[in-house]
Amino acid sequence: MLDVGRHPNIELLAYSEVEKVEGEAGNFKVTVRRKARYVEEDRCTGCGACAEKCPTAVPDAFNEGMGYRSAIYSYFAQGIPSTHTIDADQCRQLNGKKCGICAKTCQAEAINFDQKDRILELNVGGIIIAAGYDVFDPSLIPEYRYREITNVVTAIEFERLLSASGPTGGHLDRPSDRAVEAEIAGLDKKAEKSQKALSKLEEKFNEPSDQFYKKYQAGEYKDDEDHKKWADKYAAHLTVTEPLEELKKKARGFTVAKRLAFIQCVGSRDFRFHPFCSGYCCMHSIKEAIIAQEHEPETTSTIFGMDIRAIGKGFEEYKIRGGNNSNITYVRGRIAEITEGPNHNPVVTYEDTRERKVKNQEFDMVVLATACAPIKGIRTLAKTVGVELDKYNFIKTSSLSPVDTTTPGIFVCGCAESPMDVPESVAQASSAAERAAEIAFQSELEKEKAVA
Amino acid sequence: MPDKKEDIRIGVFLCHCGSNIAGYLDMEELDEYSRKLPHVTFVQRNLYTCSEGGINEIKKGIKEENLNRVVVASCTPRTHEPLFRSSCGEAGLNPYLFEMVNIRDQCSWVHMKEQEAGTTKAEDLIRMGVAKAALLEPQEPIMSKVERRALVIGGGIAGMTTSLALANRGYEVVLIEREESLGGMLNNLNKLGPTMTDAGALADEKIRAVTGHPNITVFTKAKVTEARGFIGKYNVDIETESGVTVIDIGVIVVSTGGRAFVPEGLYGYDGKCVVTQLEMEQLLKDGLDADIKNVVMIQCVGSRNEERPYCSRICCQTAVKNAMLIREQNPDAKVSILYRDMQMYGVENEEMFRDSKAKGVRYINYDPANPPQVEPDKVRVYHPLFGRDMDLPADLVVLSTPVVSQEGAEETSQLLRVPIDENGFFLEGHVKLKPLDFATDGVYLCGSARFPANIRETVAQGLGAASRASIPLAKGSVVVEPIISVLADEDACRGCGLCVALCPYGALEIRTTEKGRKVHVIDVACKGCGVCAATCYQHALSINSFTDGQIEAQIEAFLD
Q: Which of A393, A395, B159, B182 could join B255 via S-S bond, C-beta 3.0 to 4.6 A?
């Protein structure tokens, strides 16, 4: 990423969208909308001081909504360019409220609330589409109860939980436990506030609140205004602290998730959604299970799949190593449903096709290996750029011209073409670069011929 | 030796790497500690030193604090040293006055649970890095011209695709094929899935394009017997029936393909009633015998076992394709595929898999612990869903055997000094990020020489390898890191040649000079591995930026 950002021959137009493509191979005119960031790119140093001071907390899309970022933000810490962006929907200032704290904080004077979208016209010889993919939304599969059972997460959410820079700093804290911790934090704040008010009264009457309250209830105090106020305040305080203590007691028993289930083909190889195989998910689950076990040696993982497709270089060996050294069990079978057991533990019901039995198994967390779906805007993009899609909504190619789209001069690589893993994407990116370079060379040649 | 009077000003940049380092080491202590080290005049901590902001801080430090040595204590030089080096260069400091200390992989990651000990170790490493940095000397990159001609070894679909791509961009290509004609594996195949393209027709089309291209010279029945030199300046001997041709070459692409494993002694293989998928291709080409009514295919024959642990990726799709073609030729034929996992990854394969089921191909899963038994006219297999053995009548048994490494791959690997992996396939520079490059600059790979690949993947890789190989060709010159071996003490060298024999990159040779036999370093070929310097008992050779003096200073600092 950094190499791209630093390369003298690459002009990076991030936070931009293609609006129109005209012309033909060797001579395209592309209209690009550079969306307003409300931050001047040439001034922003990416220091992040603005984000630290910004008072608005927004669920962090990079962490799959499992943490918060500010309204002024960089998508993630090592992102290129490091230029920050103001989230126009969330920013107080841009929504007519008084704020502008970021502008006051920014020493580089990079904040510009008046910035507008800019339209750019580019002349290019070839076009490469590398628009990637979207993660399939598993809440469409009712039997997996994603979002209903908190400890059922997607592979990408799990990836963020495993990451040292993720919302849990790499600890496999269960979402249900994290929800309790969040509740505790909220109640703690409340309790602190009410305690402050009580402390003032305690000082005034020189008596601890709990003692006073006992006596007050026993009728030892006159029912005057001051005492009544104190008693009410204390009663209200108890309604916070009692459940808080309960929750804290519960939280002391929390441990990281150690019994993991990985469910393959969630939305892929499924006629209801995507009939194709997403290719990389088997290896992704194996990798996540191995890393989870590295973090916590007692972790055991069960991977439920129809076929475990370990088809790349060294993949089968990696799969076997996972079984031998990382406590992974591979179960051949498709999941019937997930239910919620005690302690928010997901319970997986499946048929073990080897033993020909329907079984139930309880886990601490279930990870859904979600399908590689075409990006949401793919139809618009294909129409704008002028290429055809295949019946699954990936950019159409053919096996003998694997990176050529249906329009000469326009090429595709990576998961916009079809699901694939990293090495294949890297190889395909080089292929697309090659085809584009051929077009550029040939059109130069023709120009030379025309001149001659 | 550096001028002792030179005012050495070292800046130390401590990277938090988000929480990767700062979450486990005491960064404040490291900060204070670094300030006390000799020659250190500036210390700064960054959340991510590699971010644009972090890089700007290094540049600012060099300019505003007059730093003349930079030490970054962060992650691994494997990924980030080039960035930090060039950033120093951009700020006007010689890039080789930079030293990197790995306090993430070597401290925070391996000592996650021992903050104190991890921090102490980081202090040791920083102290050593600073000691070395003080002795660093500026270096200048080495530039060498590139011969604008590519050598492609192997004339199958991968090699032909690469050759055409490079030729279409105006580069001269020399294509070497061992066999009598181009085409490789395509010549033995019937139809290519999932489009059922005729393999022979595709081969003919490509061969015509290659042989008719003015920029491509083809040598058939040929082999490379010698490859001297290095990126940009190779000099190769090509042996054909009519003698040896010597050609200057800039870059080399290895596209030697693979071959089908022959399952001698497995499942009653006889080449007649029990055949391989490759033999099946020929049977289909010739037209299937009409009385073949029952066909059983067995997957993973000779692969995914102890001897050959890898999955050969393309055999399942081949079986599915051939199963459908059998049903096309003999519509009454029953075809069963006995499999462990059907590796029909991706969009096209899975679609072909579904199609085949709709067209009546049957699939039975088998457990490698209880494999199918091939008997005369039938195959017995345990059916896991029925929970009992089943007898499948079989006029023909087809064994899906893996693609194994090409004959002579080892020889090619030695010739070009590029590695092969434990399965005999060529080993790329990085399995994820450099799939088509070798670690050695100027040599690239594609197709089944790397790992079994289907037609789509092979074509894509052929184009991709051309793209990679075209970079030095387009630039016309290469710039090489000057961290290489130098004959630091010519008088000490006795010309014994021990280093020459040990150099893994062919970067050393003995030359006769006025002073007698002396070693000469071919600087562009040298990778700076240090084998020669470590071997030389006369201490005549030295590695730039890893001199004896610098390493001794590090050791002394460690013992402090």
A: B159
